[in-house]
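Mods, move this if it's the wrong board.
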Amino acid sequence: MGNPLRILIIEDSEKDARRIVRELRRANYDPIVKRVNTPAAMAKALEDQAWDIALYDDDVQKLNARAALALIRKNGLDLPFILVSGTVGEDLAVSAMKSGAQDYVMKDDLTRLVPAIERELREVKVRRGREQAERTIQYLAYYDPLTALPNRTQLLERLQQAIVDGRNGQHAVALLLMDLDRFKQINDTLGHHHGDILIFQVGLRLKRVLFEPDFVSRLGGDEFAVVLPSLAAAEHITMVVQKILKSLEEPFAIENLPIAVEASIGIALYPDHGTDAETLFQRADVAMYEAKRTGSGYAVYAAELDQHSPRRLALMGALRHAIDHNQLLLHYQPKINLTTGRVIGVEALVRWQHPEYGFISPEQFIGPAEQTGLIGPLTHWVLHAALSDDGVLRRAGKPLTVSINLSARNLHDARLPGQLAELMRARGGSPERLELEITESAIMADPARALEILSKVHGTGIRFSIDDFGTGYSSLAYLKKLPVDAIKIDKAFVINMAKDPNDAVIVRSTIELGHNMGIKVVAEGVENQETYQRLIELGCDAAQGYYMGRPLPFADLNRWLDESPWGLKKD
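Not the wrong board. Structure tokens:
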């Protein structure tokens, strides 16, 4: 079969139409042809089917070229139009081409027909591609491609117009910024593809509960915004917010897994909180973080809340300074071998004593560091400091494994293997004394990339353990492929295992699972002798917890190693 080609021939002569078909078949085309010669017949043909090209003979009695072209334009078609005639003169051909025809061919030389058709088909393909690109660019300029909701650009235009209308009509305008709570945890656990599905479904629910003139937009990530352009009374805001929050109460189904979603909404009002779009955005953002901090669901901007946003910015700036000027410190928590009752390693935990704010808990700066990209320099500092301390222990004849936590961003950084190799060379460290701890969710965010990087690093002799095991949604079949030396049972299961039979079952099953996979099992959160003894009975390999030792500064750790019954002191 030849190449399919749909041709509308506007021609009185059936014989001439057959000549055209034969010429096309000789050029390896398989034409689908419709011959018309009246305005009504042409209009019906254009309505019934899509055509690739139109060929017109100017001898048609009841339909001139201008009228035929007008019918094509009336239907909104980009259809190449070629005159094929035995009588058309140059003046008439030029006139027709000015009206929209693309080319003309004389019937006594139909060898020019196929090249003319192919040239016009190429040009229309280029033209349509360019038009599609322009439409795509225009769409992306104003819409979010994931949810099909208006994007930030369109939202700002609508908000600014609402402010102008509010000023003229002397009524209030509200801006609502909404952020999904713990979305990063969902994204890290289920993967970015499933996170995108969730964002799409949230967008659908918002569209269902909000109607004109209210305006909903996706700003990016897990952030949405709503403009209420005409508020008759302040209590209307509460009604809308409650409607939004209620719409999120029913769990979302992601591959048959019910996902509960909560949100925090910040509210700023024109003219009370600002008279321009930028100010309203900034103040709605402050209110949103207050709602997130308090867990209240939503908050309205108040001037006294503004201190929180600058403090976060100041903390991240101060963290960069603390990293660059070596103002952080490490504490080390001992890890005890449950067979010997002696320390076999330590976990390095970063601490920060801020000169103005005092002690900053890791929860306050680790998460923001990951979000702002500071997690890379922070992890590099921890590695450098821990390897320096390990050198001191090594020279003192104290052989311990040092464990360091990696975030998802660290794990998926292709530069990690090279950076580790350079650090080991610079510090003279022994790879087998270094253990990197990663979470299930960090692995499953991008399993293929995680496997590639883990394999490269593990090949140098550095060990890996899976931290907080049991809290993620990882695939056991996939975990078996990973170069992992140990799994750490999350302390949430260990702390109450002596009293809670369900936790005890989880701990026992995890120990058996790890041993069946040929890897060691470490329990976290051991806070009493009963739990410690139960872990020994279950065959757990090692444990950490306040019962054996709290996290200690390096100087105190050195003394602990010499003096503690769990330490390295020989009997």
